[in-house]
Amino acid sequence: VQLQASGGGLMQAGGSLRLSCVASGRTFSSYIMAWFRQAPGKEREFVAAMNWDGGTRGYSESVKGRFTMSRLNARNAVYLQMNSLKPEDTAVYYCAARWFNGLPYNPNDYDAWGQGTQVTVSS
Known about the structure:
Blueprint: E1 3-6, E2 9-12, E3 17-23, E4 32-38, E5 45-50, E6 57-59, E7 67-72, E8 77-82, E9 91-98, E10 112-113, E11 117-122
Parallel strand pairs: 2-11
Antiparallel strand pairs: 1-3, 3-8, 4-5, 4-9, 5-6, 7-8, 9-10, 9-11
C-alpha cells in the first residue's frame, strides 16, 4: 500500500487545518489508520488512530478535544481535522497503516507510512 498525505501549511495559533491521506490498495477498509507527528529533534509521536469503521478511535492527550480523525473508505482516505492549533503542534505529520487489530501508540507497530506533510503554527 502507498500513502499520500497532504494539507499541511502555515497557520496562526488558534486556527484550523485539515490533513488528508489517500491510500492505494483494495483492502484499505480493513486497515487500522493512524496519524503521527515528528517535531525537529524529537521522536515520532502518536496523534490519533482509528479502526476500519471509525467505531474505535484513540487520541493523544495533547490533541484530545482539538483534533478529530475520520475516514472515508469509499475514497480510501483518512482525515485529521485540527482545530485550536498551538505552536507546539508544529511538526511533520505522517499517516500510517496497520494490517492487524489494535490502536498501538508505538510507530514501530505500523506497516506502511506516507511521506509526511509539514504543519507550522505561529504564535
